Amino acid sequence: MKFSLDSNIIGALRCPHCKGNLSLTENGCASLVCDGAKRHCFDISSSGYVNFASPAQSKGGDSPEAVKAREEFLSLGFYEPIREAVYQTASEYAEGGLLVDAGCGEGYYSQRMSERFYVFGADISKSAVNTAAKRAKREGADKVFYSVASVFELPVKDGAASVVTNIFAPCVEAEYKRILSDNGVLIAVYAGEEHLMGLKEALYDSVRKNQERADMPADMERIAEKRVCFDIKLDGADNIKRLFAMTPYYWRTSSADAQRLYDLDSLSTKVDVIIAVYKRRDGKEML
Ligand SMILES: C[S@@+](CC[C@H](N)C(=O)[O-])C[C@H]1O[C@@H](n2cnc3c(N)ncnc32)[C@H](O)[C@@H]1O
Ligand SMILES: [Zn+2]
């Protein structure tokens, strides 16, 4: 079947090597080719994503195990209030245009955003991007395109994005500022101080509230903030483990402490998330 890619998305991308424009070619299989002297070529996978990352960059990112756990947990619907709040926030600040989801994971947020925006999702985890692209293909979401790429070096032209979403992923202010249009906004979503407190209490003897993140923008202007806070109850060890495996605690917890969690029949915990909106200080006033 012929691969199609909306011109609103491809027109906003640039070659990661020479910054040339990219166009789609179909010679047996689909690929993106740049118009630079070297004609750099990037194949589109059978699931429909492109890999722009260098071999050194490709080493990072979430493992297939973490990706699977997050996909399964998110499919349970517990984080839908967060996804809807992010969608509403993006809709408040931009009527449409290109939304870049930096650190998009399995595309849980990106695909919803594509109901209003043209979406380019980038993540360094091949397994996450493959999962995201497969779902988009399966569900016929044709306004979203995914790539393996580092958020430190996005293959996006200067000023091309109306919105950058950065959801539980590394926040790289300089790069997000570079790709935002004059009136564009960065929407950063991260853990509030009480986030997953019940999970932490089940794991450890003493717990502290989460601290404000150190990588939040310093040069951009924080123009709005929403807090999305609610309680969830997970039944069964499988669902508890899915939530646990998508958190950073999974990698830092001893097997004895983890076992305390797996022995529970159910887990109640607070979900506490901050949605912060930033604009460029040098941006024009919104009309
Ligand atoms: C906690 S997950 C969040 C995924 C998604 N935004 C969500 O909330 O469902 C963090 C994601 O950031 C990605 N990531 C980490 N470092 C990255 C980098 N340098 N460039 C791109 N993605 C990165 C990981 O692979 C992972 O998918
Ligand atoms: Zn090139």
Overview of the structural elements:
Helix content is 29%, strand content 28%. By secondary structure, the protein is an alpha/beta fold. The chain has a single domain, classed as 3-Layer(aba) Sandwich (Rossmann fold). An eight-stranded mixed β-sheet has the order 4-7-6-5-8-9-11-10, with helices on both faces. Strands 1-2-3 form a three-stranded antiparallel β-sheet, with no helix packed on it. Helix 2 packs parallel to helix 5 and helix 2 packs across helix 8. It is globular. The site of zinc ion has 8 residues, from loops.
How would you summarize this macromolecular structure in one to three sentences?
The protein has 287 residues and is α/β, with parallel strands linked by helices. It has helices at residues 7-10, 64-75, 80-93, 108-113, 126-138, 173-179, 197-203, 237-245, 249-252, 255-262; strands at residues 22-27, 29-34, 41-43, 50-51, 98-102, 118-123, 144-148, 161-167, 180-191, 221-235, 266-279. The protein has one domain: Vaccinia Virus protein VP39 (Rossmann fold).
The low-confidence parts are none
The value of Rg in angstroms is 19 Å
Basic shape = globular
Q: What would the average pLDDT be, to the nearest integer?
A: 94
Query: What composes the largest sheet?
Result: 8 strands, mixed
Instruction: Spell out which ligands are present.
Output: S-adenosylmethionine, zinc ion
Number of domains: 1
Fraction in helix: 25-40%
Structural class: alpha/beta
Strand runs, count: 11
CATH secondary-structure class: Alpha Beta
Please give the count of helices.
10
CATH architecture: 3-Layer(aba) Sandwich
CATH topology-level fold name: Rossmann fold
Termini, distance in Å?
43 Å
